[in-house]
Amino acid sequence: MSEMSATRKAALWVGVVFLLGAALGGTLGYSYARHVVSAASTPLPEPVKRARRVEQLTQLLGLTSAQSQQVDAILLQRHTEAKAIHDQTDAQIEQVRQKGRDQVRAILTPEQKPKFEEFLKNLDQEKKRNGTK
């Protein structure tokens, strides 16, 4: 009987250790995955991205420090130009969006207009939450 009891005790301990291991593994896996996803979804500031790109090119191409500085200056200038174009384009897209909204408003009845405004409010909030413009 004590032999049966010892076997059961051993099986119980194996089961408890297995369950604890599974629980700990699941918790650690979830925490790690959540950390990786949140780190990946956080965009890096432009200077950090540029520094990484310069470092990558410096190592890949064997750039001198003078060349690295020149590449950094080139990347900064191109970023500034691209951002200006992007900002201008965003403004133009917003003008087109507003023009379309105004055209829809013009054909709506007074009863429909508040519903349309509520729809636009919700749409804008959703875009803001999703990080789109």
Question: Which key phrases capture this entry?
Answer:
133 residues, mainly alpha, 4 helices
Describe this structure in words.
The chain is mainly alpha-helical and 133 residues long. It contains four helices and no strands. The longest helix has 43 residues, at 65-107. The model has no long low-confidence stretch (mean pLDDT 89).
Provide the gyration radius in Å.
29 Å
Number of helices: 4
Report how far apart the termini are: 74 Å
Which segments are poorly predicted (pLDDT under 50) over 5 or more consecutive residues? Answer: none
Q: What's the pLDDT, averaged over the residues?
A: 89
- SS elements, strand count: 0
Provide the succession of SSEs. Answer: HHHH
Largest sheet data? none
Shape annotation? flat
Strand content: under 5%
Q: What is the helix fraction of residues, given as a range?
A: over 70%
Summarize the structure.
This protein has 133 residues and is mainly alpha-helical. It has helices spanning 2-41, 46-61, 65-107, 112-130.
Topology:
Blueprint: H1 2-41, H2 46-61, H3 65-107, H4 112-130
Helix pairs in contact: 2-3
